[in-house]
Amino acid sequence: MSERNLFILNWLGLKQTDTQLATVFQPIINDASQRKYYRCFLEGHSYIVMDSMHDQSFSQFINIAKQLLSWGLAVPEIYKVEERQGLILMSDLGNDLYLQKLNISTANKLYSAALNSLLIMQTNTSSHSLSLSSMELGYINNQLGVFQLWFLKRHLNLSETVEIKQLINYLENLFVAVFAEQPQVLVHLDYHSRNLLVLPAPKPGILDFQDAMIGPLTYDLVSLLQDAYISWPRAQVEAWLLQYQGLAFTAGLIEFKDHAQFVKLFDLVGLQRHIKNLGVFARLHHRDNKSKYLQDIPMLLQYILATCRRYQELQDLLAFFEEIIMPNFAGDTLCKQ
């Protein structure tokens, strides 16, 4: 057992010599970050330990958790903190991820619950912004840089050309404008099926919110409805968008009623997120040795191609993906080192 785990056990009051230690302190599969999680059983109750010693978002996680809880959302309740060591003991919301429970018969109920909780987060933004960073030019620039470095250059071995530089500049201007055009709200950033839990209560359990920012209204809708891990027919996605749009309009979050305009904003924000994730997933593979995310890249590409085919102003980007990106993705290119 590592020295770090021994420290955590001591912090929890668990004895290393306990013959039942494996049953009361269990590692949980890590996410895409460097954080580690453990499920522990203390005095007949189940808890989660988050080990984020080297995570700069440690304090933000605590602040956001307290705020979301005060708004009535289902997030982990924090019981004990060791700030210098980056340890948090919190409530256990269970194992039932949306991804495991979503199917044709459950989708409407689960997504309706997720949309209602999302609305609570968004409508409370004006009263408490939590001093979060904004998704503006710097953020968009950074994410396009990740896409260029890790997906285009490292994963596909594509050198920067005049065409690529022009496309990146075009995307930067497009995304800055589209983000700014929408109401600015609290954005979870990864509000999707691997970070939402099915609970006995109607509200979903919400995880992994420490990277939250202030950004466009439709961003978390994209995370939820154009999930990198599960997809739905376009007609169904638009039906959920219409449902959300009605809720947001009633809540005073949006003023416009034109559904086509709303869908376009959703699609263009989705384009930014999917391009960003191409870079992130490639980086997880090449830098962090977390290669399981490569299997989700084809879904991102299909979202991108579908969006480009929908709008005339994206035809140059469509040609770039169809003529350069997709041919480089043939055969075993996806999994190359």
Task: Give an overview of the whole structure.
This protein has 337 residues and is α+β, with helices and mostly antiparallel strands. It folds into 2 domains: 3-91, 2-Layer Sandwich (Phosphorylase Kinase, domain 1); 98-335, Aminoglycoside phosphotransferase (APH), C-terminal lobe (Aminoglycoside 3'-phosphotransferase, Chain: A, domain 2), CATH 3.90.1200. It is 50% helix and 12% strand. Strand 4 (78-82) and strand 5 (87-91) form a beta hairpin. The chain is globular. It starts with a helix and ends in a 9-residue tail after the last helix.
Itemize the secondary structure elements and their pairings.
Layout: H1 3-12, H2 21-24, E1 25-28, E2 36-42, E3 45-51, H3 58-70, E4 78-82, E5 87-91, H4 98-101, H5 107-123, H6 137-155, H7 162-181, E6 184-187, E7 196-197, E8 205-206, E9 213-216, H8 219-225, H9 234-250, H10 259-286, H11 297-310, H12 315-328
Antiparallel strand pairs: 1-2, 2-3, 3-5, 4-5, 6-9, 7-8
Helix pairs in contact: 5-9, 6-7, 6-10, 7-10, 8-10, 10-11, 11-12
Descriptive terms for the model:
single chain; 337 residues; alpha+beta; Phosphorylase Kinase, domain 1; Aminoglycoside 3'-phosphotransferase, Chain: A, domain 2; 2 domains; 5-stranded antiparallel sheet; 9 strands; disordered C terminus
